[in-house]
Amino acid sequence: MTIPTKRPRLPPAALHRSDRPAVRRLPIAVMLAPAVIALVLLFGGGLAGAVRQSLHPTIDGAGPLDLSAWTAVLGDPTFADALWFSLRTALAATGLSAAAAVAIAVALRRQAALPRFLVALPVPVPHLLVATVAVAWLGPGGLAERALGALPIQLVRDRAGLGIVLVYLYKETPFLVLLLLASMGAELTRREEAAAVLGATGWQRLRWVVWPTIRAPLATGSLIVAAFVLGAFEVPMAVGPSYPPTLATYAAEQPQLDLVAGQAKAAAALLVAAAASIALAAAAVRLSRDRAPCLSVAGLALCLRPVGLSTVGAGA
Amino acid sequence: MISGEPAPAGLVCRDLVVAPGGRVVLRRLALQIPAGTRTVVVGPSGAGKTTLLRAIAGLERPLEGEIWLRGRRLDTVAAHRRRVAVVFQEPRLLPHLDVVDNVAFGLRAAGVPRPARRAQALALLDEVGLAGLAGRRVDGLSGGEQQRVALARALCVKPDLLLLDEPLASVDPNRREGLRHLLVELQQARALTTLLITHDQSEAAQLGERVALLLEGTIVQHDTPRALFERPASAAVARFFGTRNLLRGQVRGGRLPLDAGWIDAPGPDGEATLAIRPERVRLDPDGPLRLRVVAASYAGTHVRLDLHGHGLTLEAHVPPAAAPRVGELVGVTLPRADLWRLPDPGSQAAERDLAERSTAGPADVPAEPAPLP
Predict the structure, then answer these.
(1) Model pTM?
(2) B contacts of A200 (beta carbons < 8 Å)
(3) What ipTM is given for this predicted complex?
């Protein structure tokens, strides 16, 4: 055996594999498998049940396939109004919450724990409680009207859904702020410093360092907010207008309006809401392509959640 | 405080006081680095090395003092306008960009068009041996590869000053020598004024044309690596660079009498502190000192001996084949030529000497840098 005496020149990077981590990355499909299996079992079942129910518009859900519930829902002008109203309030509440959250998180990121705690306070408060307080304060004859004489605009039960958007803005902004602050840790500060000494201005650092870091959690959080707003009915029932309804309130009313085909119509309406949520999830995934695989599973689970719950609720 | 006058080329720190988080870390620090040279600041943890680097880079605001670079005052300029690039201890790459875009980041900030900046980045990647990884995501690279990307990224903006904070710390020990050579090659090819930070004396000696020792927020000696190891300015410097053999006493007639014997001492008669490196202590049956081996530990290239007797304790490094057994009584010689007499801390000469050593000027820089091992 000969002992090499010449030290090799600086080896090319291709030969540096030995100092890589020993555990190589698993294929992405394998890593996602547990989440996908849970998603298919828990939420896929609910979806399949909703599809089945929408195609059997009878009291016991039996009988041949029948598209009459779909035809009735899709031809109902109230449903069209509800769909548009739901999308509009969901997008407005989500967009405003996201914008406010980014501004607050950027302002709070170097603050002490107390301001962060104060901002996070609304997170555990139930939506229905906030909506009820909003009615007590801002509704006709409420505390604000008594104190001020009259409010310049109607905020509760207004046709534009402003009250719904405001309640969600109050509730969801702190939730998104928490998500963003969690992603703005010491590592982001270190990367910003590295960018600064390379000549990046404050605005460039915000665009090229901070935004790519918060983009994924912001998209995930916004997706959660949008899916929740689309699927929830307690806030629209408390502060929303009597017309148009949201998709969730439309679905909740159907079994009372039609004892035979009401549940099938409710299932059809909620499946449309689910489709809208999935479309939003796809958009969110596209916005945060860097972490798309994680987002898609989390997003799908969250989008399908209101459908599953609401379907059960509607059928009960 | 000095101000207004034009500063010489290179980096100059004057009376720098920095207190990150309210705690004073740098205490009137003075440091002068000639343009185009490579200086290493070495010191123990908590001495203020990283604080110094951050202050120079503009990431920490000094309470007092001035920083000048190539005749331009830096401490009043924002970090992104200083033309000072930093390679941090951890690479701090942007995970959403591929390797070449990470390297080109500074050029992007400067408004260089995409094709031109990518071409420059690719050329630098070639120089650091990573041309084949240009399109890869950075989170798939090893620690050594990431640090080379960070180095290429820093060089890509053609800075006036390059700062490196423990650049080898996150690198596999087997890869350190390659990266060390690369750092030196790139610095020499560009004649780039470079300041490195490390806590490792050996790394400092191998990387620096000059080495500055930072203790408790102050540069206590700034000299050639060899001088710091062999001619320390104080007992603290001697101890930091591994010389724990310090002998104090009254020199009379060229000899320092000790309870264990006597040794020939350099310099005039009077109070003296003599230092000798452990590898220069000779075991000699006829030596004037008789000491007992109280501990021996194998250290790969040598055996470290702890010798004790008559109140004197010495550390000696001897070849493994010549190492005596523990408990053995050995004769010891401390060659006069290897003894270094520490400057008397109170004397004017010592203070003048220390001041010169802590702000080494351009004339002090050797024309030929010490070759790397």
Answers:
(1) 0.76
(2) 80, 105-106, 109
(3) 0.82
